[in-house]
Design brief:
2 copies of one chain form a homodimer. By secondary structure, chain A is α+β, with helices and mostly antiparallel strands. The first copy, chain A, has 17 helices and 20 strands. The longest helix of chain A has 17 residues. The interface between A and B is large, with 101 and 101 residues. Chains A, B: Belongs to the FAD-binding oxidoreductase/transferase type 4 family.
Chain lengths: ~450, ~450
């Protein structure tokens, strides 16, 4: 491993390193790109960046890191929202975005095996002609390795689950540079301890995922999208829970609250929508007769919960337009609050607590003088709030987040449904998990005794 | 904790023990009941049995066990098939069958919280009036704690997943006697390491589960059961995979091979069935129109795969009769082989390998002079073979199992889809997991340094 540029890692390198040489990029202009994350949060300048192409290069990097005591931060597409990828000291960035080959697609097994830098849209482009899709959709075009590391989920989790449910097996490099295979590429196994799931969500702190075998699902024959407005959040939530109780094949079940719908109207310069809480729904039916019956059943349910209007999109074009609006929500809010940055909270609660959680967030926003919009994956109880702020009210937005998390934990929820702990939510970890945090620390120390893998993320040892 | 009977645990007990006293039953007649498991496999006589009623009594037992160096074996309903519950030395049995309260059923949250000794039929009786069910069905009326410990699954896994997917959170007593809560009772969380899933499938070797919050699912409105005969196993498997590819709401997808169907005919003393491979299928539809369309689509698929006959059961009575036959398979085989014991193998393979796995098992049975019947959870690739044997051909049946597992592992499968490793499959662990076994051992040593929790099960430390 050779390096060039401003920093010098030292002469121990050449002898300690027993793998293929990997160039360390230390050009300041490059390193600066790694100091800011997608949320605008800033970290230190890392000591360098390497771009391993495969597991051997990752393992060689880890062995060298261990020999030289160099902490490592792995990253894929860089779409973390919680500071997972920010350097705090002298870390070396292991950028896996170029380790992005699709190794296998097996239509009969409904699986694909990929390197960690493969993104979800890249994978879906490769599986579409088999009539299959990778269903975890966090919005961003994240890498699959990064999605596994944060246990990402998103809009389709209500039907297909998140990364725990969709990664069958992985290959990983451990802190000692050894390579292990975790899980098996079968639908179920009761063999040995579940290490595959231990690494999912561990944010690169227990090992570096270098390969994943994921589940693929059939692309549905018959897909309808619905938008329904309700007088209150509580009515929308009750209707959503009743749909779930009717075992309807709902694959997306998204809530946008009244301020969000108002922002969308303003963004489009039109009064498209009732400015009341709305559900955006996808229904995946097995046939046209099933689709008709399922849409009728949803109509019956939403009417019983005093729905104000009901829009069904059946063609691809109509469906695309309906969801385009939902996806525009963040841009609509940005347009309403020029110059602001945005905090996106990520709490998740049991269904029975959703309406109260939204109410708490709205009331708290009022108290703190903040403009709070809610965009929740209601089918999972995952209540995102989006709050614009500037340097002038940064403390208020932080207080908002803290109070919302405390409330969420007090009713049995979680501080983070899908974004992960990273740097920013470590402070809530013991409140959520109690003495289990000591067990997490013991496992971290066992797997990474020198604290070289993404140190200080998820927890402190 | 006091004890009576033949054994004496020693005087250290009274002082070391800081919880409520728990009587240790050491009556030989009682202990003998714990020396044989459901498969007829024999272990040592344990040193005694305790019956904790709740987490405090479990924690007190563990603290006492630690102070006295007493190894523990936890059990629920005692339905393990792999020797998980057999004593190998001087273990104390912690029988949790009396820790069986249903603590909470929350219809809005689609969850129930139970003590570990609650059985699945007990839970389903408590949730049915809410229109909800606990869907994991391993056949036996197992306890939920035991099912979590072995990551049980069963006939409905193709639609609902096994215990990993259906346990949201747990409470556990660790080897040091501390009590932790793992996971959160929400649909998704990315907070901290996934310790909930680390304990699921660990067979009581990493901690003792004292409480579980599980997912409930709506009882389907419209359920049809189908039985379809095929000329070959390959045709049946191809039809099954095509049904899965069509995203039909199949909730059971079971294969019985020709010898199994012949045994059922003999059992009933009638020629009910074509003596060729058959699929037993449940379809859960959201409405009657959906059910009709889905049944038609399945008819189309099975015809394309040369189905010989097609039986649809629509009423509850018809459905019950159809599945009764499938459930009678084991009794039918027993009746055909009086005086025999039975080995049930539990390998699982990728879909593309199912037909070859069945073929391998059948051929291998012929070579070894064994009568092999296959009853597979085909929707999960889980291929059970059922093989009668006596003392005269015990070696042959062991060779059958070993060869089948080696074949399975060589094509990417697992030695155990749902029964667990226990005692009997430890020998395959490294062949399946390679260097990851060292990581499992490291975790076991970290969590249970004195090797007091179900020692020698899953792995040796």
């Amino acid at each position: 491993m050779e390096e060039h540029g401003a920093h010098d890692i030292g002469s121990a390198m050449t002898t300690a390193f027993d793998g293929p040489p990997l160039e360390i990029d230390t050009r300041p202009g490059i390193l600066d790109q790694y100091t800011i994350d997608e949320t605008g949060r800033a970290g230190q300048r890392p000591r360098g960046v390497v771009y391993p192409a495969d597991v051997d290069e990752v393992a060689a990097t880890v062995r060298w890191a261990r020999a030289t005591g160099t902490p490592l931060i792995c990253r894929g597409a860089g779409t973390s929202l919680e500071g997972h990828l920010l350097a705090q000291g002298n870390e070396l960035i292991v950028d896996l975005s170029q380790s992005n080959s699709i190794l296998d697609v097996s239509p009969t097994d409904f699986t694909a095996t990929v390197q960690p830098g493969v993104t979800r849209t890249q994978l879906n482009a490769a599986t579409v002609e088999s009539g299959l899709q990778f269903t975890v959709d966090p919005g961003a075009d994240a890498s699959l390795g990064g999605m596994a590391a944060t246990n990402a989920s998103g809009t389709t989790t209500v039907r297909y689950g998140g990364m725990h449910a969709n990664v069958l097996a992985s290959q990983a490099v451990l802190a000692d540079g050894s390579v292990v295979r975790l899980g098996r590429a079968v639908r179920k196994s009761s063999s040995g301890y579940d290490l595959k799931d231990l690494l999912i969500g561990s944010a690169g702190t227990l090992g570096i995922i270098t390969e994943l075998t994921v589940r693929l699902h059939p692309i549905p024959e018959c897909l309808r999208s619905l938008r329904v407005s309700f007088p209150t959040v509580a009515a929308a939530v009750d209707a959503a829970v009743e749909m779930l109780g009717a075992a309807l094949p709902v694959s997306r079940l998204e809530l946008v609250d009244a301020p969000g719908m108002a922002a969308l109207n303003a963004f489009h310069g039109a009064d498209h929508y009732a400015e009341t809480p709305a559900l955006f729904i996808d229904v995946e039916s097995s046939s046209e007769p099933a689709a008709i019956a399922e849409e009728q059943e949803i109509q019956r349910i939403v009417k019983a919960h005093k729905a104000i209007d009901f829009t069904a999109a059946r063609s691809h074009t109509e469906r695309h337009a309906l969801w385009e609006d939902r996806h525009n929500l963040f841009f609509a809010l940005k347009a309403r609050h020029p110059g602001s940055r945005f905090m996106v909270t990520d709490t998740a609660v049991p269904y029975s607590q959703i309406a109260a959680a939204v109410d708490t967030a709205t009331r708290l926003g009022d108290e703190l003088g903040l403009t709070v919009s809610v965009a929740g994956h209601i089918g999972d109880g995952n209540v995102h709030t989006i709050v614009p702020y500037t340097d002038l009210n940064h403390d208020a937005v932080q207080q908002f987040s803290d109070t919302l998390v405390h409330h969420t934990l007090s009713v049995g929820g979680t501080a983070t449904g899908e974004h992960g702990i990273g740097l920013t939510k470590k402070k809530y970890l013991r409140e959520e998990h109690g003495a289990a945090v000591d067990l997490m620390i013991a496992i971290k120390r066992t797997l990474d005794p020198d604290n070289l893998l993404n140190p200080g993320k998820v927890l402190d040892t």
